[in-house]
């Protein structure tokens, strides 16, 4: 908010005698302001109720296309829509003309009423600079008064939902996105969170239904952000909406790696398909990661609601062109569904990385154990052995799988010396992935109280947990 102090007021006053109400007070960026500060002003205004469609490409105010001009437009729009109406009227300004029935009541908009009141205040206070000062305390007062006025003026939310649906159906997807953001922000400002959530949920669904993944994901993330602002509990109503949005994200089969193609056009098409797949995965990941964090903060398990982890892990596995089994496993071990996780790992066998089947299984089991979850670790291992008998009968002969089997038995007893002996005996297999050693250090600490020699050990795993 401090960036607003960079603004200076430019008073455009006619030299001829004209009715006071037509005089306008405007706000513009201060010359010499850095590009970073100008962009910060634009971001602030566009995320706090200003319709920024006119400064988008093709918009009526896009030209001149400079940060200075765009920032001036945004901040003036913000200033005009947050006029100090009540404050001005408390300083011996006659606001009767903008009351219902008054000569200047129409047009009945906050912008026009603010313009009348602020100009009257300015005229009656000697046209001094102090009469136009726009500082931090003023902003706080304006925001409080504006919130109360918005509460009274906002129309029923269904009117916006119906109107915006038509905008999307007419093909103005980007314009609709900006309108969804600006209108929902007004309801958030008025602390009418349930209505803001209705608008954002509707917008996310409509945009996704029309194949606009980027737009739909933006609104889906805003939906979760609003859940956080409203301090909404992690309950069935909110989770049902998250599930519904998740199901609308497209699933498009994409080759997991480059295959033989006949010509350059085929290569280009494949590359475009892979790029679109990555974009879908990134958008869905941002949405569900935000939802997981919200669920952990407002009533769900400390690591996030299990079903949300399952949804993200499944989407990453089926839709991501480059499989990251570590990342996928991080979610599945928190999903409380070891049977589904086992089926996924069996399906993974030989899919893309020959010779790494046992490595993926070992990582998964050790992740369960590092969390102290012996039950699911044993269940998943038994399930994998059962399902893999026909698909990969050699799996049980792997040194790494033998190590995991012995480890599960060892952890059921107080046998730290045996635990250490196993690590030494199977060191060459364990060293195939540094993450296995780190997970084993965590397991030793959890089950036997062994402190890590290096306090930085475990950081790798913790980073993944935070990123997950």
UniProtKB/TrEMBL annotation:
Keywords noted in UniProt: Signal
rRNA-binding listed as a keyword: no
Gene Ontology cellular component terms for the protein in this record: cytosol
Ranges where the X8 domain occurs: 25-85, 86-150
Signal in keyword set: yes
GO BP, sorted A to Z: protein insertion into ER membrane
Family matches, as InterPro entries: GET4, TPR-like_helical_dom_sf, X8
Leader sequence segment: 1-23
Family: Belongs to the GET4 family.
Protein name: X8 domain-containing protein
Organism: Arabidopsis arenosa
High-level lineage: Eukaryota, Viridiplantae, Streptophyta, Embryophyta, Tracheophyta
């Amino acid at each position: 908010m401090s960036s607003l102090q960079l603004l200076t007021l430019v008073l455009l006053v006619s030299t001829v005698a004209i009715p006071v109400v037509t005089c306008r007070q405007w706000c513009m960026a201060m010359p010499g302001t850095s590009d970073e500060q100008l962009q910060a002003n634009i971001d602030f205004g566009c995320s706090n109720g200003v319709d920024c469609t006119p400064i988008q490409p093709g918009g009526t105010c896009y030209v001149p296309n400079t940060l200075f001009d765009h920032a001036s437009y945004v901040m003036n729009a913000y200033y005009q829509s947050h006029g100090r109406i009540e404050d001005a009227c408390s300083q011996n300004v006659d606001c009767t003309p903008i009351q219902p029935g008054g000569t200047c009541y129409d047009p009945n908009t906050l912008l026009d009423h603010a313009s009348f009141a602020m100009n009257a205040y300015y005229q009656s206070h000697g046209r001094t600079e102090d009469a136009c000062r726009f500082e931090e305390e003023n902003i706080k007062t304006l925001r409080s008064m504006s919130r109360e006025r918005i509460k009274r003026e906002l129309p029923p939310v269904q009117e916006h939902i119906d109107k915006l649906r038509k905008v999307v159906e007419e093909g103005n997807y980007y314009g609709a996105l900006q309108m969804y953001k600006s209108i929902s922000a007004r309801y958030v400002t008025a602390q009418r969170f349930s209505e803001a959530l209705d608008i954002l949920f509707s917008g996310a669904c409509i945009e996704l239904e029309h194949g606009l993944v980027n737009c739909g994901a933006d609104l889906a993330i805003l939906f979760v952000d609003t859940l956080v602002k409203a301090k909404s509990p992690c309950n069935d109503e909110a989770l049902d909406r998250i599930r519904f949005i998740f199901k609308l994200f497209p699933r498009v089969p994409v080759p997991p790696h480059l295959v033989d193609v006949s010509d350059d056009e085929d290569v280009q098409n494949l590359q475009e398909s892979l790029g679109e797949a990555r974009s879908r995965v990134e958008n869905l990941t941002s949405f569900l990661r935000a939802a997981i964090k919200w669920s952990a903060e407002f009533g769900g398990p400390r690591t996030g609601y299990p079903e949300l982890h399952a949804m993200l892990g499944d989407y990453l596995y089926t839709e991501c062109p480059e499989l990251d089994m570590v990342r996928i496993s991080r979610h599945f071990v928190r999903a409380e569904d070891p049977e589904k996780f086992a089926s996924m790992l069996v399906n993974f066998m030989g899919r893309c990385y020959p010779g790494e089947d046992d490595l993926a299984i070992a990582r998964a089991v050790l992740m369960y154990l590092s969390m102290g979850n012996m039950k699911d670790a044993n269940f998943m291992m038994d399930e994998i052995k059962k399902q893999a008998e026909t698909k990969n009968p050699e799996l049980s002969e792997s040194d790494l799988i033998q190590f995991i089997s012995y480890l599960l038995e060892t952890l059921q007893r107080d046998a730290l010396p045996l635990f250490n002996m196993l690590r030494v005996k199977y060191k060459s297999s364990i060293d195939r992935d540094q993450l296995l050693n780190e997970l084993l250090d965590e397991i030793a600490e959890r089950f036997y109280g062994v402190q890590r020699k290096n306090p930085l050990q475990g950081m790798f795993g913790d980073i993944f947990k935070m990123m997950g």
